[in-house]
Amino acid sequence: MIKENLSVVEQNIQNACLRASRLREEVTLIAVSKTKPVSMIEEVMAEGIVDFGENKVQELTTKYEILPKDLRWHLIGHLQTNKVKYIVDKAVLIHSVDSYKLAEQIDKEAAKKGIICDILIEVNVAGEDTKFGVSAEEVYPLILEIAQLKNLRIKGLMTIAPFVDNPEKNREHFRNLRQLKVDIKLKNIDNVSMDELSMGMTGDYEVAIEEGATMVRVGTGIFGEREYMI
Ligand SMILES: *Cc1c(COP(=O)(O)O)cnc(C)c1O
Hints:
The chain is an alpha/beta fold. It is 39% helix and 20% strand. It has an eight-stranded parallel sheet with strand order 7-6-5-4-3-2-1-8. Bound molecules: pyridoxal-5'-phosphate (PLP).
């Protein structure tokens, strides 16, 4: 099942790249393995996937310990400052930075471990009350502030677009996020590279790729539906 799902996702990614005249290598597929067991992750690894996304610190660190160390773990969920110390040296990229306070804590813990931590700024593209992330207007001032911190590097922007029945409804949000990325990149800020755009999930990753995503985060499309424990 996972093998078949992955080949469908891969084909969709290739088709979206073709439509947008982009190279397949420009898009990283992150398999979102939250709530899924290690055995299923191993099935995905067997197909050559090395990038995995988790939204909880505890779950990421547990899986990190069990699985081979050459996997690339992405923290894609909301991060609390008191959990930063567990994650800075385990995640290759923290996608969900949305405050100076959080960035400052990441900088502090990265310094302690003698590493530079790569981050994305999470943007709430549609201004939804239920979502984390900063508004589009807040992104530039926040980046100017965070860029002063020496133990992290801002690699780009991330968004969780609204849950919609038709992915076309998110096209404008993806396009706006890409434009924001381009505008900020043109300012050539130290410590800020702005090459990455983490956007697109199972429902809308093809549209996101057409609009410039460099990382898509696909969970259900690879692993099947999630069952949450209550
Ligand atoms: C769960 C999750 C995903 C994957 O969602 P699917 O719809 O299952 O592909 C992507 N990004 C974030 C931040 C998530 O929490």
